[in-house]
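Look over what follows to help learners.
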Amino acid sequence: MEELQSALKERDLIVCTLPEKGRCLLTTRDFYPGEVIISQEPYVCVPNKSSGNRRCDGCFTSSNLRKCSACHVVWYCGSTCQKLDWKLHRLECQALSRLDMDKRKSVTPSIRLMVKLYLRRKLESEKVIPTTATNNYNLVEALVSHISDIDEKQLVLYAQMASLVNLILQWPEINMKEIAENFSKFACNAHTICDGELRPLGTGLYPVISIINHSCLPNSVLVFEGRLAVVRAVQHITQGAEVLISYIDTAGSTMTRQKALTEQYLFTCTCPRCIKAGQSDDIQESAILEGYQCKDYQCNGFLLRSSDGKGFICQRCGVVRDKEEIRKIASEVKSMLDTVLMSSSAGNHQETFFMYQKIETLQRKLCHPFSISLMQTCEKLLEILMEQQNWREALAYCRLTIPVYQRVYPGFHPLLGLQYYTCGKLEWQSLLAYWHSVGLPKSTGMCVQDFYSPVEVYKGLKGFWATRTVL
């Protein structure tokens, strides 16, 4: 602990233990938006497993991959990544090669992550891999597991996974109970490694980053540069303040956020947003984000359940919307969502697109304009249109999502910056498509302002710079 404190002191940080929160990370100077607070390489990490999109174990790229000729499980993009990973993979390769081919195919990223954890601990004890103050197995041991809080069904699952790890390693002295507890630690402490557009690439364990506590109103954000985890300030953090990130997507009502945190991380959040649960402004925000549209579509008021329970009353104009009418539309939306999931999994993209358009039409009758579920439907349509390279329609849907993003994410949040950036890219793609449609060469000297207003151009540039200046 002293070595860790000394290393963090150089970064203007300190670890403290609070009775109500456990360990936390505090600042010893002011940090400002965009500043790097701390960064860390993973103690162990694995790429996602996907038959259609393999990734290099070293850098997580999906280009120029070659399979390990011995174990046939791990992939590398070249000799550089293979050599850097060799000390650890040499032992993993031997262990995986002992399994028959069917069992090797069933080894999940979580199992591999645990195998690599124990192999790294072994190599550390044998002085093959050096330890540092911020990367050593003692820091993994100090992580909270919440093992006493999980249900029996989950315990049985962890025990089964521990048996598979034991089968792979074949170490007589291995502690099965400890492996099961470490799986519980993974569930509470491992992070999803994402690319620059926040698409998941793999999973990593970052013991120091895991000390940082959660808030639904965070002052920092965790992003990734390759496999490097980087925590940046998104607001002014004063000296002596706690560094806080969000473990979940903070878009949603207090009830939705609390449910996600309880199920995944086994704690109840008491951040400034969550302690307002049940207060009038929290009730209003929940009704807007997850509630219903006023019957008068020009009103934009939010609805609360009537005292007799037979309907919902608009809090702006007083119009009552019948409960049965809402139930009927909601049931239709749910049925269509179930259908579209089957259509999507079958690869029928055109049918999927038309179904989502119908869902959007119904949700606009049912949901408040700032509804999270409506925004998610627009994003599905945006995704399909971008795959079809229909830039103008994609841009229209992207613009529809911006006001919701502005409402649910702070000004420096990477998701908001990414949405601005996406909008900017679509503005440019739409412009290129227009040039092509009218047969204008790029050398005509025309610029973006010839076809777009300064406000539209500003939106794109704002997104472009937000993702670079802040993140």
Remarks:
- Residues 443-471 have pLDDT under 50 and may be disordered.
- The two ends are 30 Å apart (CA to CA).
- The chain is about 50% helix and 15% strand.
- Residues 414-438 form the longest helix (25 residues).
